[in-house]
Amino acid sequence: MTFLRNKSTLIPLILAVVLLPAGLQAADEDTVAAVKLIMARKPFFLKQPGNPFCGSFLRDFRTLKGMALAQPVARASSYDDPMLARYKARCGGQPLNEKFECDARTGLDTEWSKDWKVARQQFLDFCEVFYGTANFKLFELDIDNNPKNGKELIVHFERVYGPQNREREKYYSHGEYNVFDGGSCEYVGGASTHDPYDYFRKHPLDSYNGIISYQGRYFIFDLFDLEGSDRNPSDPEYYLKTNTIGPSRTDPDRSLECSYSTIPPTTKPAAKSRKQRGSK
Description:
The longest helix has 14 residues, at 28-41. A six-stranded antiparallel β-sheet has the order 1-19-16-15-14-2. Helix content is 17%, strand content 29%. The relative contact order is 0.21. The chain is built from five helices and 19 strands. It has one domain. The chain is α+β, with helices and mostly antiparallel strands.
């Protein structure tokens, strides 16, 4: 999926430490320091060499030049945390921690409705649904530059569990950012991210994500450790992707979606599975 645009003032890097379950979520200042260290230590190769925006983004992202990390307005360790109650009430029956996994054939063969209520039922029918269980961060940002409909609600969560709509083995996997309209609270987009944990091999990963403001827009970045059986824990390989939402769920701006890797283009990466299976 895709992510975020805005022309508002950059959000200053005033960072707070919040204690969350060990081994899962880094504090914000740790994320900034870790990103700078990885980008200084490893060369990254652009996957879209013909896109000038992606080239300039990578140059600035190496030092986070002209970028600022968005601050969450609330944090919670679980979906039942009372801290989330008013945000749940704001969106009525729409789950804030819902993530769908659809196979490639479903995505190509399905004519998705532009009405989110209809589209959500399509997702429930044709795809697997997972629900986030840990490390919730909520943001309120004016994504669409429309003060009349209020600030959009962005919810990030980790450690999704499912599939909940299929009679088969359930497992933990990676989280996501979900974005909801400031007025109707209708789902308008999002981006999958990678948790800092390998749920299959059961060890931490050197992965980071966040929302940054850059050139008048908001972006999600996902800088993740390429887990695999041949992973070198002292010198892992990384993948970086960016997403921006807009102008709508059904008409995203793909020109600002970029991806990079520390693996040279001529080298084949180790096989890995996006869906990791793990026990409770």
